[in-house]
UniProtKB/TrEMBL annotation:
It comes from Desulfonema limicola. This is Bifunctional protein FolD. It catalyses: (6R)-5,10-methylene-5,6,7,8-tetrahydrofolate + NADP(+) = (6R)-5,10-methenyltetrahydrofolate + NADPH; (6R)-5,10-methenyltetrahydrofolate + H2O = (6R)-10-formyltetrahydrofolate + H(+). It comes from the Bacteria. GO terms for biological process: L-histidine biosynthetic process; methionine biosynthetic process; purine nucleotide biosynthetic process; tetrahydrofolate interconversion.
Amino acid sequence: MSAKLIKGTEIREQILEEITAEVAKIKEDHGKVPGLVTILVGENPASISYVTLKIKTAHRVGFNEIQDTQPIDISEDDLLALIDKYNKDDSINGILVQLPLPKHIDDKKILNAIDPDKDVDGFHPVNVGRLMIGGDEVKFPPCTPAGIQEMIVRAGVETSGAEVVVVGRSNIVGKPIANMMVQKGKGANSTVTIVHTRTKDLAAHCKRADILIVAAGVPELVKPEWIKPGACVIDVGVNRVGEKISEKTGKKVAVLRGDVDFEKAKEIAGYITPVPGGVGPMTITMLMLNTLKSLKFKLGIE
Ligand code: NAD
């Protein structure tokens, strides 16, 4: 193996320790800790496990965390009223609504009702606009792209002047990470190309990339011969390709593959993220960082 592995699991531990220390200091200086509420509607098992992980992580770093579970038949108006209550609650700095919501609720209407200054997921149109403007305007970068950028920076990869190719143009990964990499500033200043399903020659674009960020959701879409020797490859894809029995727990678990042929790509790339254990652990970590930032903005110390 020639590539250096960029491990999200290790970077997560570093960042969570940094957040824990900062929370303790703010508590000492200002008598406040970040407050994060997660609103869950119904009992979808996948949503419960995501929310549980968010709440557990928030607890670990010393936040005041609330899990607010609502019945599956809650009306849209009642859910809007609940969000309004948390918007007005001074002890709450971050509001998360776990998706998907039941069909009778318009999720866009719900997400747009969150106060943009408590929208720690960074999906409110105001925060999307702030991200586009860049610089000091940015309050809450969306968590997965922010995690990707953080990994690139912490791995010591040069981004200024680098050719960045992003595979995928979704609103949660492709478009925001492309926008972040093209901005002025640390971990950015890159020349960015976005490729997608209508791109004519995907391979030719990927081959030019000094930093290749792949978020397509297609197992092993990126072939080893598409990778420029020494490039930094960030594999965002999480694809379930089967099941196996876990050696640790003896239970059935999903077999996950990324969007890159990891085994061969790691012989060519200079840096590469594994799946699992790469970008995955960064999303909740950056959510914690955004919630901490929200309190710091409020206290005027960010
Ligand atoms: P999406 O389906 O919304 O978007 C995929 C994008 O990839 C589309 O813009 C599409 O044009 C492009 N694409 C698909 N097939 C392609 C092909 N053959 N050639 C070129 N482009 C192609 O997906 P998403 O929400 O952006 O997620 C992408 C992947 O990243 C998924 O596997 C998802 O599970 C994973 N993901 C991981 C995390 C995390 O680890 N924390 C977070 C978000 C998404």
